From TrEMBL:
One of its GO terms (molecular function) is metal ion binding. Belongs to the GTP cyclohydrolase I type 2/NIF3 family. Keywords: Metal-binding. The keyword Acetylation does not apply. This is GTP cyclohydrolase 1 type 2 homolog. It comes from the Bacteria. NCBIfam families: YbgI_SA1388. Coiled coil: none annotated. One of its GO terms (cellular component) is cytoplasm. It comes from Thermobispora bispora (strain ATCC 19993 / DSM 43833 / CBS 139.67 / JCM 10125 / KCTC 9307 / NBRC 14880 / R51). The keyword Metal-binding applies. A divalent metal cation binds at H69, H70, D108, H233, E237. Homohexamer.
Length: 286
């Protein structure tokens, strides 16, 4: 079969077959942000955030499409003027013929989605099941529950999780006895404190997610909930990118369509340093 390059519309059809936009939350903004459906796509860059550094990488690499996890305009806008940060991204992409597509909460809940990839990255094995299954499909839903290959201390699992996730400025935070034994683990990519009660009801030993706040976490621990591990938001979602890239290129290849995919390794987490980095221990603060 002769290899051909697809149109943007053909690529989007494959993405949406894997991550149906109908699965997205009502408040979400998924789909094509900019780009001509008839344009040819040869190179696709996958990234968590559609920010300036990612746009620059796409231009330098010669990408035709960015597939981002986070929406560019989640709450809508009245301007794409280049005098605004997001407007500059739009102008840079359009000016270089680069399309932008977002798969957000529809990728969160999908099989082989964000939380599946996170679970595998931190060492969970065997079958995974949703932490909060979708009403119409028990195989789909928020978060995942899985098991470790063997029981281990919370301390050891936290170290294993840190090694499996991309590195960010801040380390993982842990709540619970570091010497307690854990085996069953729940994870949720991105902000997951809305599922604290669900993780407690599931009877897991530890719940790993991002963006945990003081009061919900404190109340969870006081109620005897499972141990908590709080990672960087960006780091919990990045492991999905190579999975999505491989699934898309494989689906297209099965139809004789060839594209080149690349996963951005730009760390776009909002936090760039800790006080240890900014103020070394031997430096006197004044």
């Amino acid at each position: 079969m002769e290899s051909i390059s697809p149109t943007l519309a053909e690529v989007i059809a494959e993405i949406e077959a894997m991550y149906d936009p109908a699965w997205a939350e009502d408040w979400d903004a998924v789909g094509l942000v900019c780009g001509d459906p008839d344009q040819t796509v040869r190179r696709i860059l996958f990234a968590v955030d559609p920010v300036a550094v990612v746009a620059d990488e796409a231009v330098e690499w010669g990408a035709d499409l960015i597939v981002a996890h986070h929406p560019l305009y989640l709450r809508g806008t009245t301007t794409v003027a280049a005098s605004t940060p997001k407007g500059r991204v739009v102008h840079r992409l359009i000016g270089n013929g680069i399309a932008l597509y977002t798969a957000h909460t529809n990728a969160d809940v999908a099989a082989h989605g964000v939380s599946d990839a996170l679970a595998r990255a931190v060492g969970l094995t065997g079958p995974l099941r949703p932490l909060q299954p979708a009403a119409d499909d028990p195989a789909r839903g928020l978060g995942r529950i899985g098991t470790l290959p063997e029981p281990m201390t919370l301390r050891r699992f936290a170290a294993r999780a840190a090694a499996g996730l991309p590195r960010t400025a801040a380390p993982l935070r842990v709540a619970g006895d570091p010497d307690r034994e854990v085996r069953t683990v729940a994870v949720c990519g991105g902000a997951g404190d809305s599922l604290l009660a669900t993780a407690r009801a599931a009877g897991v030993d530890v719940y790993l997610t991002a963006d945990l706040r003081h009061h919900p976490a404190s109340e969870h621990m006081e109620a005897g909930g499972p141990a908590l591990i709080d990672a960087a938001h960006w780091a919990t979602e990045w492991p999905w990118l190579p999975v999505a890239a491989d699934r898309l290129t494989s689906a297209l290849a099965a139809k004789g369509i060839t594209v080149e995919a690349r996963v951005s390794e730009a760390v776009t987490d909002a936090w760039t340093a800790t006080t240890t980095d900014v103020y070394p221990e031997d430096e006197e603060l004044g």
